[in-house]
UniProtKB/TrEMBL annotation:
<keyword id="KW-0812">Transmembrane</keyword>
<feature type="transmembrane region" description="Helical">
    <location>
        <begin position="77"/>
        <end position="94"/>
    </location>
</feature>
<keyword id="KW-0472">Membrane</keyword>
<dbReference type="Pfam" id="PF05656">
    <property type="entry name" value="DUF805"/>
</dbReference>
<feature type="transmembrane region" description="Helical">
    <location>
        <begin position="48"/>
        <end position="65"/>
    </location>
</feature>
<feature type="transmembrane region" description="Helical">
    <location>
        <begin position="21"/>
        <end position="42"/>
    </location>
</feature>
<keyword id="KW-1133">Transmembrane helix</keyword>
<dbReference type="InterPro" id="IPR008523">
    <property type="entry name" value="DUF805"/>
</dbReference>
<protein>
    <submittedName>
        <fullName>DUF805 domain-containing protein</fullName>
    </submittedName>
</protein>
Length: 116
């Protein structure tokens, strides 16, 4: 994995493609940030701010998912499949978390593994 990852691009852009390594790194970062913020807000008895924080965290999560769907040659709108209870989440984990991206260039960009 390239640890010189462009984190701003990873969490703010809906353009392009990413492979599984930066995707999972982004998931771990978002999870850890959420865990720490939730813990701190709980200690400060400001758990009501957690709802606002959760709403803010939707944007970087969807940006991350969209680029991964693009690597699978699908629209970022496929992120909505996660709204289907259990089966949608399982499908998304399989499709964007486990499956390799398409090897050829697509309408979303070139293969991120071919750039190396």
């Amino acid at each position: 994995m390239d640890f010189n990852q462009d984190w701003k691009y990873l969490f703010t852009s809906f353009e392009g493609r990413i492979n599984r390594a930066p995707f999972w790194a982004g998931v771990v970062v978002l999870f850890l940030v959420s865990l720490v913020v939730t813990f701190v807000l709980g200690l400060l008895h400001l758990s009501w701010l957690g709802n606002l924080f959760a709403l803010v965290m939707v944007y970087p999560g969807v940006a991350l998912y969209a680029k991964r769907w693009h690597d699978r040659s699908k629209s970022g709108w496929w992120s909505l499949v996660m709204l289907v209870p259990l089966l949608g989440l399982l499908y998304a984990i399989y499709e964007i978390g486990i499956q390799e991206g398409v090897p050829e260039d697509n309408q979303y960009g070139s293969n991120p593994l071919a750039r190396a």
